[in-house]
Design brief:
- By secondary structure, the chain is of the alpha/beta class.
- The protein is built from 14 helices and 11 strands.
- It has a 7-stranded mixed sheet, with helices on both faces. It has a two-stranded antiparallel sheet with strand order 6-7.
- The two termini are 23 Å apart.
Length: 387
C-alpha cells in the first residue's frame, strides 16, 4: 500500500467548499468572465502583460509553436529542443513541420547545455529555441539571454513543471517570448486540468486567443478585431463567426478558472513548502547523490525531488526499497527524449553523456505541500539505507 504518493492534489477541502458555494449561485460554467479574471490575476502574479488560459500545459506548448509559425516572424523553421523535458515540449515542433535539433542537458540544472546550444546556434542558425525549466530548478538565464541577444532567436520557455521557481528575483516563465505553464494534478498548483501561455507580445497574444478558439477573432483586443473586419470586408452579421486562422478548441472553463484563482491566492505558501522540503532532501542526500545545482539566489519550487544514482544497478536497489516502504517513485522526467521511439524513428537516437545519465540513473522522490519535514526525513533515510 502506498503511503507517500509522488503527487498530491493541491485542491484542498477549503477550495472545494468555496467551489460548492460558488456553484450554488448557478454561475456560467463555460469560458467567460471568471476565465478573464484568472488570466488577469495570473499575469499580475507573473509580471507579464498577457496570459491565455487553455485546457492543459501540453496545449499551451501547442499554441506557442503554432502562434509562432503563423506570426511570420521566423527566418527558418529550425528549432532547438531539449533532450530532458516532456514529449509535448517537442511534439508540436514535429506536428507543425519544424526542423528540431536536440540539445544536451546542462550538468548543473539539467536544462539546455549552453556550450552545446551555442555550437548548434553557430552551425544551424535556428530561429527558435525551446527550453525547459527542469523540475522547478531555474536554468542559467543570464547566459541564456546573452545567447538570445547574440544570435537573435525566439525563446519559448516551458515552465510547466516549474511554477513558482525564480532566478535572481525574476519568476520562471517571465523570460521567454512566450512561456507555457501546466496546472495538472500534482503540479505546483492545479485547476484539475489546465494550462496557460504568457507573453508580453501583443501579436502573439492575439494569435494565441484566436487559435485557442477555432480561429475566430471574438476574444482578441478590439482594435485588432476591427482591423481584421476591415481587411476582409466582413459584414456586421457575420463578424462573430468568421475564422481567420485554422484554429483549435483548446479552451478550459470558468469552473477550472475559479479553482485557479484560489490557487494563485495560496501560491506563495505552496512555493515556500515545496522549497523547504526540497532543501531538506538536499541536506540529507546532496552529499551522496548527483542532484541539480541551481544558481545562487534561485528559488526552487520542485514538483518532485530528483536525484541520480551511481548507476542503473544502484537505482534498482533504491526503487526496490522505496516500493517496499510504500513510497511512490518513477524515472526522472522522461529521461533522454532522444532515446524514445517518437524521436529516433524520425531522426535516429540522440545520445548525450548528461542526458543519458539522467535517463539510466535518475529517479524522483515525493515533494508536495502536504509532506512534512519528518516525512522527508523518513523517505531520505530509506534511500540512504538502500545504498
Amino acid at each position: 500500500m502506498i503511503k507517500y504518493y509522488l503527487a498530491e492534489d493541491t485542491i484542498d477541502r477549503k477550495d472545494i467548499n468555496q467551489l460548492i458555494r460558488w456553484l450554488g449561485t448557478y454561475p456560467r460554467l463555460t469560458k467567460g468572465e471568471v476565465t478573464l479574471e484568472f488570466e488577469s490575476k495570473w499575469s499580475r502574479w507573473l509580471g507579464i502583460k498577457h496570459s491565455v488560459f487553455c485546457n492543459s500545459g501540453s496545449s499551451a506548448n501547442l499554441l506557442m509553436f503554432y502562434a509562432l509559425l503563423l506570426s511570420e516572424k521566423l527566418k527558418n523553421k529550425k528549432v532547438v529542443v531539449p533532450s530532458v523535458g516532456w514529449v509535448t515540449s517537442i511534439a508540436p515542433a514535429i506536428q507543425f513541420g519544424f526542423e528540431p535539433i536536440m540539445c544536451e542537458a546542462d550538468k548543473d540544472t539539467f536544462g539546455l547545455d549552453l556550450v552545446h546550444l551555442e555550437s548548434i546556434l553557430k552551425k544551424h542558425r535556428p530561429s527558435t529555441v525551446m527550453m525547459v525549466q527542469v523540475l522547478g530548478v531555474p536554468h542559467k538565464m543570464k547566459e541564456m539571454l546573452e545567447l538570445k541577444r547574440k544570435y537573435g532567436f525566439t525563446l519559448l520557455e516551458d515552465t510547466c513543471a516549474a511554477i513558482g521557481a525564480s532566478y535572481q528575483g525574476k519568476k520562471a516563465g517571465s523570460f521567454g517570448d512566450m512561456s507555457s505553464f501546466s496546472f495538472y494534478f500534482g503540479h505546483q498548483m492545479s485547476t484539475i486540468e489546465g494550462g496557460m501561455v504568457s507573453t508580453n507580445n501583443k501579436t502573439y497574444n492575439n494569435l494565441l486567443l484566436m487559435l485557442r478558439s477555432h480561429g475566430w477573432s471574438k476574444d482578441i483586443e478590439k482594435t485588432a478585431h476591427n482591423a481584421l473586419v476591415r481587411k476582409y470586408k466582413v459584414d456586421d452579421f457575420h463578424t462573430p463567426f468568421v475564422f481567420y486562422q485554422p484554429g483549435f478548441n483548446l479552451r478550459s472553463s470558468d469552473l477550472n478558472a475559479f479553482l485557479g484563482i484560489g490557487q494563485v491566492q495560496k501560491l506563495d505558501w505552496i512555493i515556500s513548502r515545496r522549497q523547504e522540503n526540497h532543501l531538506r532532501y538536499k541536506q540529507h542526500l546532496g552529499g551522496k547523490f548527483y542532484i541539480q545545482k541551481p544558481e545562487v539566489g534561485s528559488i526552487i519550487c520542485s514538483i518532485h525531488f530528483g536525484l541520480l544514482a551511481k548507476d542503473a544497478k544502484q537505482r534498482r536497489s533504491i526503487v526496490k526499497a522505496l516500493v517496499k516502504n510504500g513510497i511512490e517513485t518513477r524515472i526522472f522526467s522522461a529521461g533522454n527524449l532522444g532515446l524514445h521511439p517518437f524521436w529516433f524513428n524520425r531522426y535516429g537516437k540522440a545520445s548525450f553523456p548528461m542526458a543519458d545519465r539522467i535517463h539510466h540513473c535518475g529517479l524522483f522522490l515525493p515533494n508536495n505541500p502536504s509532506l512534512k519535514l519528518n516525512d522527508v526525513d523518513f523517505i531520505s533515510n530509506i534511500v540512504l539505507k538502500a545504498i
